[in-house]
Automatic annotation (TrEMBL):
It comes from Micromonas pusilla. Gene3D superfamilies: 3.30.70.330. Keywords: mRNA processing, mRNA splicing, RNA-binding. It comes from the Eukaryota. GO terms for biological process: mRNA processing; RNA splicing. GO terms for molecular function: RNA binding. This is RRM domain-containing protein.
Length: 434
């Protein structure tokens, strides 16, 4: 390694360490001693050397900002930033929850997103933020509405100085599950003894398969293919999952491919794997849908007629996708009184939709559509929400992932249905022109 290369490597490593500690580049006062650990809890030994006190305070405030912020949900309409800040400060000071009341108000800033009904509160120090978590579910003033006080979605306890200082147990991230949800649609574990041999490279060498798929619990419906796709191209997609036992492409009245397929894999364990892997995958500008055609059916007997009907759970996923969704069978009549119950339900669904789609929760807008008597939930994915999660992609792709994962799941014993909001002819024309 040359001298220049060694210097570059050392500079890169130093920059990485400084970034981890929240220490900006450019501080070079070699005479300054390390900071007093009592003043800056959670920072590593020797931190603060080369910085004066104002610089340390600035860097420490930036480093701890995530741990000093809390999510405030269920904020009543009409409440403004100063009202919520005053309410939280009074709550902290009057209850004794503030760690150091003599230092002044513990809440220094509140930012509300009025159209979404939630906001974020920033505290003076991490201890006050930790203490304020006890107020989750407290009634806001005389409104009768309960507010939610939680950690933001991007909170990382491993970077919280209070956790490091007190040696608290750091738990892994917990997904926000739906009320009454058993997570039945969680991705299945890949069988350890399951090996998938690569199909022969030439289509002419592929084994012949029965073009009749009998009824049974492992019969799969796969839709969303373009009618221009050949049987070989469709089969190539399916064989990426594993060896097929049967394969049937449904034709139209003229014998042309319709893009609807029924199949069964040789290994029945691949049924749930295929559902998870293929549903929501894109193929020629259209997401694929893969669902069991009749999950409760008994294995067919020899001579039984086979049925080829698109399962109800797949129908909403076959519609033309867009960034807006409707969620049905979530809010029921029992939720309507009081209103804060509806708000809690909408918030839980919004966060779960963000989690399964890999989208920033702040970029998912959700509310109950008041113009509809069935109390459906309206969801919209905004562009740019995949940056924080690292998933990337477009809002359209996030909506497809959400619909694919959420459709058919249960909520308080009811099956939820998600469908894309129908678009007008003008909107579709604008979409095609983009």
């Amino acid at each position: 390694m040359s001298v220049e290369a060694a210097k570059a490597a050392a500079a890169k490593a130093a920059a990485a360490i400084q970034a981890q500690l929240g220490m900006p580049l450019g501080y070079a006062d070699v005479d300054a001693a390390p900071a007093d650990p009592a003043l800056y809890p959670g920072m590593p030994e020797g931190w603060g050397a080369g910085m004066n006190e104002p610089q340390r305070q600035t860097v420490y405030a930036q480093h701890t900002r995530q741990a000093r912020r809390l999510y405030i949900g269920g904020i009543p309409p009409g409440a403004i930033n100063s009202d919520v800040q005053r309410f939280l400060n009074d709550l902290m000071l009057n209850s004794g929850a503030a760690i150091n009341p003599a230092a002044g108000p513990p809440v220094v800033d509140v930012k509300i997103q009025h159209e979404k009904g939630f906001g974020f509160a920033e505290f003076t120090n991490c201890d006050d933020a930790q203490s304020a978590l006890m107020f989750d579910g407290v009634v806001y003033g005389d409104t009768g509405r309960k507010i939610r006080v939680n950690r933001p979605r991007d909170y990382d306890p491993s970077k919280n100085p209070v956790v490091i200082r007190d040696g608290l147990q750091i738990e892994g991230p917990k997904g926000i599950g739906l009320l009454g949800e058993k997570q039945a649609n969680a991705p299945p574990p890949w069988p350890e003894d399951l090996a998938i041999p690569a199909p022969p490279p030439l289509v002419s060498e592929w084994p012949k398969l029965p073009k009749r798929t009998p009824d049974g619990p492992n019969k799969l419906y796969v839709g969303g293919f373009d009618p221009l796709h050949t049987e070989g191209q469709i089969r190539q997609v399916l064989q990426a999952i594993g060896e097929l036992k049967s394969f049937c492409v449904m034709p139209d009245a003229r014998g042309r491919n319709t893009g609807h397929v029924f199949c069964e894999f040789a290994d029945p364990r691949l049924t749930v794997v295929a559902e998870e892997a293929l549903t929501g995958a894109w193929c020629f500008r259209q997401p694929i849908v893969c669902k069991r055609a009749m999950p409760d059916a008994a294995p067919a007997k020899e001579g039984d007629a086979a049925t080829y009907a698109i399962p109800d759970i797949a129908l909403p996923l076959l519609e033309e996708p867009n960034e807006k969704l409707w969620a049905y069978n979530v809010v029921c009549r029992e939720h309507c009184e009081p209103d804060d119950v509806v708000a809690d339900v909408v918030e839980v669904v919004r966060r779960e939709c963000a989690a399964v789609s890999g989208w920033d929760v702040e970029s998912v807008i959700a509310h109950v559509a008041p113009e509809h008597g069935d109390k459906r939930i309206s969801l919209e994915f905004e562009e740019g929400g995949g940056g924080a999660s690292g998933v990337g992609g477009t809002a359209l792709e996030a909506a497809v992932r959400c619909s694919s994962k959420m459709n058919g799941r249960t909520f308080e014993g009811r099956t939820m249905w998600f469908r894309y909001v129908p678009q007008s002819d003008e909107e579709w024309q604008r979409r095609k022109e983009r």
